[in-house]
Amino acid sequence: MKVTIVGAGNVGATCADVIAYRGIASEVVLLDIKEGFAEGKAMDISQCKTNTGWNTNVTGVTNDYAKTADSDVVVITSGIPRKPGMTREELIGINAGIVKSVAENILKYSPNTIIVVVSNPMDTMTYLTLKATGLPKNRIIGMGGALDSSRFKYYLSKALDKPANDVSAMVIGGHGDTTMIPLTRLAAYNGIPVSEFLSQEALDKVAADTMVGGATLTGLLGTSAWYAPGASVAYLVDSILNDQKKMIACSVFLEGEYGQSDICIGVPCIIGKNGVEQIVDIQLDEKEKGLFAKSADAVRNMNADLKSVLA
Ligand SMILES: NC(=O)C1=CN([C@@H]2O[C@H](COP(=O)(O)OP(=O)(O)OC[C@H]3O[C@@H](n4cnc5c(N)ncnc54)[C@H](O)[C@@H]3O)[C@@H](O)[C@H]2O)C=CC1
Ligand SMILES: O=C([O-])CC(=O)C(=O)O
Predict the structure, then answer these.
(1) Is 37 a residue whose pLDDT tops 90?
(2) Containing domain of residue 189, as a range?
(3) 116 and 141 Cβ atoms separated by less than 8 Å
(4) pLDDT for 230-248, tens place per residue?
(5) What is the whole-number distance in angstroms between the Cα of residue 136 and the centre of ligand 1?
(6) Distance 281 CA to ligand 1 centre (A)
(7) Is residue 311 included in any domain, yes or no?
(8) Does this model's pTM top 0.90?
(9) Residue 261 and residue 151: Cα distance in Å, rounded?
(10) Which residue, of 120, 144, 284, 287, has the fewest CB within 10 Å?
(11) Quick count: other Cβ atoms within 10 Å of Cβ 69?
(12) Is residue 275 annotated as part of the catalytic site, yes or no?
């Protein structure tokens, strides 16, 4: 199984590293526009092989799409990250052009691939990729919910003072500081609702911390996060390549689900060898429905800025 990762920066290289050492794919190609950069990252990652015991073939190329031919999955992480004080939405001006041209180049050599979009603003970049390529909706997946849900579980585990892997929880909606919807009502500690253990005030703080999880890290690091983002992409790619049919919150094209159409936004999906195999359309309560509609409005407003790129 072959995975191409476009953009060998912080997120792309981390994703390649996790895919390699976990043996998720047999071949990983890193592609970057910066001369020699992807080659260097691939070499550095490959020199881990003998001390960490894995065999994935990791190579790097400078803008040579021929080397990405016949990829089963392509991950797009190319573009700029935000700096402290910025929103993800402010990246659209530069990233839209990059994502569109990358998606078009990829399809020349991998017409049957499944594309995972990571570059921000991710929901809008996912919509752009779908519209620009005309690919069937099951083959375009935006990664955001897997990461946001892992942050939600992290903050819940801190509040509970219990292991994160004993917590089950999901974030849906847009991948933005104000558009994420942590589904607190459905979060559980070993099957028991977290409201049995935490006050409403504590739960509200967990949800608020989750929503600004990326901004908090950007403030601390000076650029946006990469370890959890890279691992979250690898988790999603694993479910596709190894047909695991995991339920993962992903940004996908909606046609009536959750009362929305003509938009890519985070909802629970079954992810397998065909990409998005099912959108899990659960019943939200009235408050959650309102939040989802508001989140969709914000994402749709952002999509309107794509007019010139899609013309
Ligand atoms: N969806 C999500 O959950 C997350 C999204 N992101 C987003 O992912 C993107 C990448 O973030 P980082 O890896 O931290 O940035 P980075 O700056 O470390 O890496 C980006 C790489 O893209 C390359 N690049 C730029 N234009 C290119 C092109 N036309 N073709 C090929 N490569 C190109 C750059 O040379 C650079 O190496 C950002 O837009 C960031 O906001 C980051 C974390 C999580
Ligand atoms: O915060 C950012 O800009 C990068 C990102 O999407 C995340 O880490 O959630």
Answers:
(1) yes
(2) 144-306
(3) yes
(4) 999 999 999 999 999 999 9
(5) 25
(6) 31
(7) no
(8) yes
(9) 28
(10) 287
(11) 15
(12) no
